[in-house]
Description:
By secondary structure, chain A is mostly helical. Chain A has a single domain (5-272), classed as Orthogonal Bundle (ABC transporter involved in vitamin B12 uptake, BtuC), CATH 1.10.3470. In chain A, 83% of the residues lie in helices and 0% in strands. Chain A has helices at residues 5-9, 12-37, 41-60, 65-85, 91-112, 118-125, 133-152, 154-162, 164-169, 174-196, 201-215, 219-244, 248-277. In chain A, helix 3 packs across helix 10 (174-196), helix 4 packs across helix 10 and helix 11 (201-215) packs parallel to helix 13 (248-277). The radius of gyration of chain A is 19 Å and the shape is globular. The relative contact order of chain A is 0.16. By secondary structure, chain B is of the alpha/beta class. Helix content of chain B is 39%, strand content 26%. Chain B is built from 10 helices and 9 strands. In chain B, the strands form 2 sheets. A 6-stranded mixed sheet of chain B has the order 5-6-7-3-8-9, sandwiched between helices. A 3-stranded antiparallel sheet of chain B has the order 2-1-4, covered by helices on one side. Chain B starts with a strand and ends with a helix. The mean pLDDT of chain B is 84. The A-B interface holds A 37-39, 151-156, 158-159, 161-163, 165-172, 213, 216-222 and B 50-52, 68-71, 73, 75, 78, 80-81, 84-87, 90-91, 93-95, 97-98, 100, 104-106, 128, 130, 132-133, 146, 150, 156.
Amino acid sequence: MNYSISEILSYTFMQRALIVGIPVALCSALLGVSLILKRYSMIGDGLSHVGFGALALAAALNLAPLKVAIPVVIAAAFLLLRISENSKINGDGAIAIVSSSALAVGIVVTSITGGLNTDLYSYLFGSILALSHEDVILSLVLCAVVLLLYIFFYSKIFSVTFDENFSLATGTNAKAYNMVISLLTALTVVLGMQIMGTLLISSLIIFPGLTAMRVFKSFKSVVISAAVQSVFCVAVGLFVSFYAETATGATVVCINLFCFIMFSIIGFLRTVGFSKSK
Amino acid sequence: MAILKCDDVTMSYEGVNVFEHLSFSLNKGDYLCILGENGSGKSTLMKGLLGLLKPTGGKIEYSDGLHQKEIGYLPQQSAIQRDFPASVYEVVLSGTLNSRGMKPFFGKNEKKLAEKNLERLSISHLKKKCYRELSGGQQQRVLLARALCATKTLLLLDEPVTGLDPVVSAEFYELISDLNKNDNITVIMVSHDVRESVKNASHILHIENKTCYYGTVNEYLLSSVSNQFIGSNI
């Protein structure tokens, strides 16, 4: 119980968890703000379930897990986006069907080929022990790509998120930006799944943005606050789970929940104070 | 000289023609109101003019130096915008995106343009306010400022006074007339309000049962289309 921070940081698995966790937290918070505002929150959840199905299939066929999961999840991201954009199909219902089917297929495949092994178990609930050197490099590259694209296209992302028709009418290719956002979300979900687990990764996308919106009122401040708070929660969650020997993903979600409640209280007190001073 | 020309345009929605063989042309400084019952195809025409939907027949052309990207559009408010965290300045500034091209950040010119339009609509004091906390009338002014950032020549407004109270609506109509007369901005407005349309507009386009009537306000008032429509509306 009496580890110092430098001792904790000397463990390779903790180093890897931080190097993967922080970039993933940053990316998911940035993308999350747009996804929430466009009412696409469920896409993250759907993608992680598809990711699980792909991993189970990869394990059964003895293929490298990420090499199967990444293309499958990207394909699913485009499919889910199309479903959400198409008003003729009930978007919510369609996403639920895709995600639960993928999860079911994954579980059936694993039970045929010999039951849940440790790898798949850790993908369901998350484990920082499963991270490889490859994951570390991949998540650093992903983070750099997401950050660059986000900063470069920040004002267009704002415009597309706020009012898709206006940006289409004034010559911004909104469909292309939606594609880029879902592509990056797919990559973030696959990488984040390993720490957070299939069942909890969507919280990493949804929580920071929603929490920031309790208090902050301009787009820029919401984005910055979500990013900072997401990184903070993942870092604190990793250390707490080490000390308390709790499951990492679940600990991170609990800390996110705590932040959400705190921000909600601050937001509530502000509106009360605001109406009094009026 | 015409800045917008519709030549024998037919448009359809989900495979059904909503109106057929629409032809008209608009000169700089005109104020056109598009009237018609719900579902008559007003919004479909709007989408056609904005290039969001392709006509199934005929041509929609912009000329005299006006590019389709340079239309100032004021859409109907969507549900998403009602709880969107954005400051007034962020919203107005996003209207300048079409003139910015591939540059990744807003420059001095864009910021000046946004400031100018905030002032023009007398909402400078709201600049840092949160968009969703404004009143309906203030929100429409913000969206109008954004539209003005996107255009110097043509404003397209889709039922802009829906949900506003009569006093605020009247102010808004006055504002549009003012922009039309003093800044020589061409206006196309989809509207429900026949009386206000007849009072402010120079031309009327009436869509009903797939056919379209187009003419100046005086011609419209003498036509049989208006008699039926106004008769049933008052």
